[in-house]
Design goal:
The structure holds two protein chains of two kinds. By secondary structure, chain A is an alpha+beta fold. Chain A has six helices and nine strands, in the order βαββαββαβαβββαα. Chain A is extended and about 85 Å long. Helices cover 34% and strands 24% of the residues of chain B. Chain B is flat and about 45 Å long. Chain B is built from three helices and four strands, in the order βββαβαα. Classes of the chains: A alpha+beta, B alpha+beta. The interface between A and B is large, with 51 and 60 residues. β5 of chain A pairs antiparallel with β2 of chain B, so a sheet runs across the interface.
Chain lengths: 290, 86
Amino acid sequence: MGSTPITPTVLLTPQPSFPTTGAPSQPGSMRGMALNMMKEDDAKYHAHENQQMQQQLERQQLQQAQLQHLQQQQQKLASVANSMSPPGTPTRTAAPAGPLSPVAPTVRLVAARIYIQTEIDFKSVNLASNTTALDVLHMLQQRGCFGEPGDGRYHDRWTIFEYSKEFMIERPLRDFEVVLDVIKTWEADKDNKMICKSFPARDELAAKEIVRLVGPAGQASFVRPHGWVHLETKKSKWVKRYLHATDTAVYHSKDSKVTRVGLSLQIWYTLGYVYTLTEFLLSIFACISI
Amino acid sequence: MLCLLRNFDVYAVQVPRKKAPTKFGFALKSSDKVHLFETPEDDYIHYVCTDSGESLRDWLVGLRASKVTRGGIDTFMRSHFIETTL
């Protein structure tokens, strides 16, 4: 993997128009009407795409103009330095940019492979330290990796999966996950990949959906998963365990009774009754001691 | 305790494990490096099977949501101009 310094304005533009975030399609009464609606949607989508491309071109032109300006300044500085230096001293060909440089500070980008549908075809994308999975989907969409309207590849269920060949497991990245942070967790000698493919339950990965699930009050009102499962304690040895998640960890126990006590304590704790009870007991002890 | 949610991610299992009681499996794998574990064969990855596809889905969605911190979502929504009010 290589790294290329580039100004952040090229890739870090927010693009909230990914079709997956749109409303679900309404069932049409007539086939013709539905087709017309689809065509209109496509036209709107293309108009927006063209607009985005124009904006990007404008930004690139502006960036080139800034670079030319900087080069001119550097040449002037070099000529001034040459005229001031005594004869025989080596000339400086590239002066470092000063603090008042017109070019924005550079962001280090890391090139990463995103496989499309299979483990063979891939596209390289430049990832900044804050590029999210949704940003990568936008990049790939702009490059036409998800097909054109009319063919089978053109749908709004594309999702990036983290895939581990060693364990044969995969997980879809949520829209807000930083892709580079995930890649950093990989072992260097293991076969891990980012694969982009269709995910029917893609809506669950959107930040808005997770906020809706967790609830506006935050994690306190969210009922976490719990129940009986089979757990592999040693290789090929499975036992039945009661599994439950708290806000920080996943616990397992042989009996659900212990867990229920723990859960009920947690609920009382959340509601503030534990504090009340402690204060009550302390006040009794204080009265007795007096 | 099985694992911390902070450094474990929830994965779907592509190929059922050997002698798995059901085909509805998921895994909890650490995002930390494997050499940080004294016994990685016991602690690095945990395999779990549920009794039905529905409960598997509930576990996957529920654990993913449990992992999310409110601050992380707010930052993302601010950067992508999405309304946080529901």
